[in-house]
């Protein structure tokens, strides 16, 4: 008997009236993960498409592959560079030392393996902790366990620092799943991005472990400021003096959250999402336009006391989480605007807000995370005014 026959045979026990009816969401989760859902429209007038939820989420996960590869390499590279000065410590160093690979930053295998030993525990804890609460809510509320959590878990793992304690990783994703999504009804009904909600909770609940110069490279005693922190303190011109060139930032050879450092990796993911029409280009163009226009305005205004006023748009593009947020968070269809004009406005609002937070707010050199959450909150209002404007325009046309 094949696996498909096995699922068909036990399915009646999980359907309404079956002895395991309450566990149908768990059965449906496993069955739909292995096979394409059988519930599709079959007759007019319903539109039919081969793009289902599973395929959409699979495409998004595939788009993160370049970021995952860079996360592994850069995390290992930054760690191995720091080990050369401070020496190895911890169980990860013991494993690498036992395998005889060493800590040479010029050895890609040593860098990839060391990065994997940091990324994999964070991702496993994210999957287990968030998945358990996802299943609990689905079982109690009797709705499906959607594939959306696979995307949220991957994005969340990529936007936390490698030094984040695993118990905080678990707490953050639980908060993101429960408060950011499930309390509103689950996938497709949330107005906030769950991964960003969990990351924002960690930042404000545990700022000592999620910010500062000591959290980006997981070596005891090592401190190193991010490009945005250096720019906020001494101006972006100081980056070159500290060995951070624009190309280093673009390629991802700088400290930061594991998956956010490489603009090139994010760009490759964006090309894939645009080619498969999972991402909407209007949001991307709007966000870039808002960021470029407002940063250019601040460059023109200038400031004698705030060096961030002088940071040009092409540095904003490659520093912090702007590129990652632009590709994987701004384009998220559920929490963003849904009208075409609204998508331009929504993206422009986020682009404007990220520069304003980075430049005007001296206490918070990053800004993409809060800018996107701010945009999420205002997306329904943007759509409302766009729809009302369309209604008035059509009413005048037919008057």
TrEMBL record:
It catalyses: a ubiquinone + n Na(+)(in) + NADH + H(+) = a ubiquinol + n Na(+)(out) + NAD(+). GO terms for molecular function: FMN binding; oxidoreductase activity, acting on NAD(P)H, quinone or similar compound as acceptor. Its EC number is 7.2.1.1. GO terms for biological process: respiratory electron transport chain; sodium ion transport; transmembrane transport. It is found in: Cell membrane. InterPro entries: NqrB (IPR010966), NqrB/RnfD (IPR004338). One of its GO terms (cellular component) is plasma membrane. Keywords: Cell inner membrane, Cell membrane, Flavoprotein, FMN, Ion transport, Membrane, NAD, Oxidoreductase, Phosphoprotein, Sodium, Sodium transport, Translocase, Transmembrane, Transmembrane helix, Transport, Ubiquinone. The chain crosses the membrane at residues 56-73, 116-137, 149-179, 253-276, 283-301, 313-331, 343-361, 367-387. NQR complex catalyzes the reduction of ubiquinone-1 to ubiquinol by two successive reactions, coupled with the transport of Na(+) ions from the cytoplasm to the periplasm. NqrA to NqrE are probably involved in the second step, the conversion of ubisemiquinone to ubiquinol. Composed of six subunits; NqrA, NqrB, NqrC, NqrD, NqrE and NqrF. NCBIfam families: nqrB (TIGR01937), PRK05349.1 (NF003756). Belongs to the NqrB/RnfD family. This is Na(+)-translocating NADH-quinone reductase subunit B. It comes from Candidatus Rhodobacter oscarellae.
């Amino acid at each position: 008997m094949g696996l498909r026959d096995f699922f068909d045979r036990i399915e009646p026990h999980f359907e309404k009236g079956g002895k395991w009816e309450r566990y149908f969401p768990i059965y449906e989760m496993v069955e739909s993960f292995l096979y394409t859902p059988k519930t599709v429209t079959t007759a007019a007038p319903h539109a039919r498409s081969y793009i289902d939820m599973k395929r959409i989420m699979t495409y998004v996960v595939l788009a993160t592959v370049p970021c995952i590869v860079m996360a592994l390499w850069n995390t290992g590279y930054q760690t191995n560079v720091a080990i050369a000065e401070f020496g190895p410590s911890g169980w990860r160093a013991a494993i690498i030392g036992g395998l005889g690979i060493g800590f040479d930053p010029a050895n890609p295998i040593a860098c990839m393996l060391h990065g994997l030993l940091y990324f994999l525990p964070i991702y496993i804890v994210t999957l287990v902790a968030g998945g358990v609460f996802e299943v609990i809510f689905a079982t109690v509320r009797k709705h499906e366990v959607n594939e959306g959590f696979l995307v949220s878990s991957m994005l969340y793992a990529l936007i936390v620092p490698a030094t984040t304690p695993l118990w905080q990783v678990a707490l953050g994703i639980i908060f993101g799943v429960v408060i950011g999504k499930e309390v509103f009804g689950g996938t497709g009904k949330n107005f906030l991005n769950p991964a960003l909600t969990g990351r924002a909770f960690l930042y404000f609940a545990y700022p000592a472990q999620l910010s500062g110069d000591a959290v980006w490279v997981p070596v005891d005693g090592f401190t190193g400021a991010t490009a945005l922190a250096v720019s906020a303190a001494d101006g972006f011109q100081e980056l070159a003096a500290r060995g951070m060139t624009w190309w280093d930032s673009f390629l991802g050879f700088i400290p930061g959250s594991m998956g956010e450092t490489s603009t090139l990796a994010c760009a490759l993911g964006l090309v894939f999402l645009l080619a498969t029409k999972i991402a909407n280009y209007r949001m991307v163009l709007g966000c870039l336009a808002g960021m470029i226009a407002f940063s250019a305005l601040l460059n023109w205004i200038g400031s004698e006391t705030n060096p961030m006023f002088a940071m040009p748009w092409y540095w904003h593009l490659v520093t912090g989480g702007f590129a990652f947020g632009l590709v994987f968070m701004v384009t998220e269809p559920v929490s963003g605007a849904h009208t075409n004009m609204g998508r331009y406005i929504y993206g422009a609002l986020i682009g404007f807000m990220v520069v304003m937070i980075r430049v005007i707010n001296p206490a918070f050199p990053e800004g993409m995370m809060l800018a996107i959450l701010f945009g999420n909150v205002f997306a329904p209002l943007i759509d409302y005014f766009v729809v009302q404007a369309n209604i008035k325009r059509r009413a005048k046309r037919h008057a």
